[in-house]
Specification:
Length: about 650
């Protein structure tokens, strides 16, 4: 099962293996990835696709000294296995186990903790320049590996343009599997398709055969290759001019499942002067047929049962998620309102927008991993009179910060932002937790921010957002959408919902944790503590009338949010109390402290942070106890004075 794999403790160990053994190792690693994916959600198809590429990289460079930067970082499982982490591999993405992305705390072979796409070329260039300045006499090779899905990110071109100008030695390996999570989109995708048709790769054209047979087999391989390229350009066979215009030498396409061929090409590009782009063609899901046939579903599938290379069953909760409820609401509104357009940034599958894509092909736009463009594009649509709805995960919306400021808020344009995965994103960890959005959206004028407390609030919030004449953000968690039974009160701009007033204290819940707050209040009621509950609904504008009444009149207030405390919902309550000259000394804020939160199941992470029903109830008990102590102290002092 892992005969060879268990002998690999560091990449140097690969040197002992023959080519056949490397192929055997590739098979063993694929098995390990399959075993993992059967137990928990993991980036499956992407990792199956880069097995040979990763082996070729680690056998062609010495990354204990050379630099390897993985773009996005979801495809590093093989790299982790080869860099001393095979024994821990079964812990991948489990709490306390290996992170599903590069993590410098785990290994020196991981240079940056990443999870957001598009930065590898920029950081690779920075490394190259930094290394050269600090140790000019001992240059290191720098390799950035980037997928064709991440490749259209704007920052890649900023970096390529810079690298082309600086003429630094930088190797960019473009891993082209024709897929982002869904099939890749856009003009660049078409250009890559044309390059893949290059006869050098397909081996179809007789001219290529002729050129190849004329290349002498003796002599320096780089010179041989260059003469090959020159002849090919003359014969009009090479594409890649776009990259050449940016100052990169384009080489490829190369078969990314052929270790030997890749080693040969990597050895060549290693010797080049100046930036070079090596176009490697792989198959996403390679080696496991169901994943190769349907790489979208197997990008990060729910754990599945498998036998003989077949998938028997996926293990899912079966309950509708917030993403699904939001999608259904939008889908229904798009049927009746032809002005609504839907935009996603390469996350059609994650946001569950496939039915919208299929039913409204002319009003649905997947712009690729280009979140800042998505928001600016939506601003243009809104200016022209449409009602765009942009669905982007909270964490990735960070990429659009300036467009939210300039293109939306400053222009007061009616664009709805759907912030999916707002809160703790679970096993993806710190790169993906969507915990900053309240803090980053609150400062902007002309932006309304709301958070449904349960499934029933999604439709009226979306309706309100589409009606409003300014930008609106709706944040919702990566969680099942529960329904909390209570009399329905309509959603009104800037109005909170009071579920009940409490004699002993009040909880003010912000969105996703409302059900945990209900449970906490119910438990406390059984213990004889009468704790009220407000569902804030709006973070901006805040219902100061209701919430400040609670602050002023209640023995204590506990605010609860699945977001950072710094600048978040609780901060908004404190600011409002301060502005109204109300003593906020009895306000306790529960939320994410000033630290990055590790990966793990969302409910466990919430419990660790005291953000489950237990933790919220305990916080209320403590507030009530300290209240009781203070009042008995005051009582005692009064007696003393008398
Ligand atoms: C800024 C940003 N937006 C969206 C994502 C979500 N995402 C993770 S992997 C991925 C697809 C990446 O495609 P590609 O780079 O081609 O890698 P592949 O999985 O196909 O190997 C996307 C959209 C992300 N990680 N970062």
């Amino acid at each position: 099962m892992d005969k060879l794999l268990s002998t690999i403790h560091l990449p140097q160990d690969l040197k002992k293996l023959s080519h056949e053994q490397l192929q055997q190792l590739a098979a063993e690693m694929r098995e390990a990835i399959c075993r993992l994916a059967c137990t928990r959600t993991a980036h499956f198809a992407s990792n199956l696709g880069v097995v040979e590429l990763t082996i070729a990289l680690h056998t062609s460079f010495d990354f204990s000294r050379d630099r390897l930067v993985w773009d996005t970082g979801h495809q590093v499982y093989v790299h982790k296995m080869l860099t001393g982490r095979y024994d821990e591999f079964p812990t991948m993405r489990a709490k306390g186990g290996l992170m599903g992305y590069p993590n410098p705390a785990e290994s020196d072979y991981d240079l940056f903790m990443t999870g957001h796409a598009g930065c590898s070329v920029a950081t690779g260039l920075g490394l190259r320049v930094g290394d050269e300045l600090l140790e000019p006499e001992r240059p290191r090779h720098v390799v950035a590996v980037i997928g064709d899905g991440a490749f259209p990110s704007g920052i890649v071109y900023e970096a390529m343009n810079n690298a082309g100008g600086l003429k630094k030695n930088l190797i960019v390996v473009l891993n082209d599997n024709k897929m982002s999570i869904c099939p890749r989109v856009g003009g660049l995708a078409e250009s890559l398709d044309r390059l893949r048709m290059n006869p050098f790769y397909t081996g179809l054209k007789s001219e290529v055969q002729k050129i190849l047979t004329h290349v002498p087999v003796i002599g320096d391989p780089v010179e041989r290759f260059l003469s090959q390229i020159k002849d090919a350009i003359k014969a009009g066979l090479l594409g890649g001019m776009f990259f050449e215009d940016l100052g990169f030498r384009y080489i490829g396409p190369v078969d990314g499942h052929n270790i030997r061929q890749m080693q040969k090409y990597l050895a060549m590009v290693r010797e080049f002067q100046g930036p070079v782009l090596l176009h490697v063609v792989t198959e996403k899901g390679h080696g496991f047929k169901p994943a190769a046939d349907d790489p979208t579903s197997f990008h990060a599938p729910a754990p599945f049962e498998s036998s003989n290379g077949e998938v028997l069953e996926f293990k899912t909760s079966g309950l509708p998620s917030y993403s699904q409820v939001v999608r259904d609401a939008l889908h229904a509104r798009m049927k009746t309102n032809p002005k609504i357009t839907a935009i996603t940034a390469a996350m059609c599958q994650g946001t569950m927008f496939e039915p919208i894509r299929d039913d409204f092909p002319d009003r649905f736009f997947d712009v690729g991993i280009c979140e800042s463009h998505a928001v600016a594009f939506a601003a243009g649509l809104a200016k022209s009179g449409l009602r765009p709805v942009v669905a982007i995960y909270s964490t990735f919306m960070q990429r659009s910060y300036d467009q939210i400021f300039q293109e939306l808020a400053l222009q007061k344009l009616p664009v709805t932002l759907l912030l999916d995965r707002a809160g703790l994103a679970g096993p993806d960890g710190p790169t993906h937790h969507g915990v900053f959005d309240l803090a980053y959206l609150r400062p902007f004028p002309n932006v309304v921010v709301m958070a449904p407390g349960d499934a029933g609030e999604v439709v009226p919030m979306l309706d309100l957002a589409i009606e409003l004449s300014c930008a609106t953000a709706i944040r919702y968690p990566k969680a099942d959408a529960l329904s909390i039974e209570r009399p329905v009160t309509p959603i009104e701009l800037g109005k909170a919902e009071v579920l009940r007033w409490g004699r002993d204290g009040m909880i003010v819940a912000c969105g996703s944790l409302l059900s945990a707050c209900v449970e906490a209040a119910d438990r406390l009621a059984e213990e004889g503590l009468d704790i009220g509950l407000i569902n804030a609904r709006f973070i901006k504008p805040l219902d100061t009338q209701t919430i400040l009444r609670a602050v002023a009149e209640s023995p204590f207030i506990v605010t609860v949010e699945e977001g950072v405390l710094a600048g978040g919902f609780g901060s908004a309550v404190l600011e409002a109390a301060c502005d109204a000259h109300i003593d906020a000394g009895r306000v306790l804020r529960l939320g994410i402290p000033d630290q990055f939160i590790e990966h793990g199941p969302r409910d466990e992470l919430l419990a660790d942070l005291g953000l489950d029903a237990d933790g919220i109830a305990q916080a209320c008990r403590q507030m009530a106890e300290s209240n009781a102590q203070i009042s008995s102290q005051i009582h005692a002092e009064k007696r003393h004075i008398v």
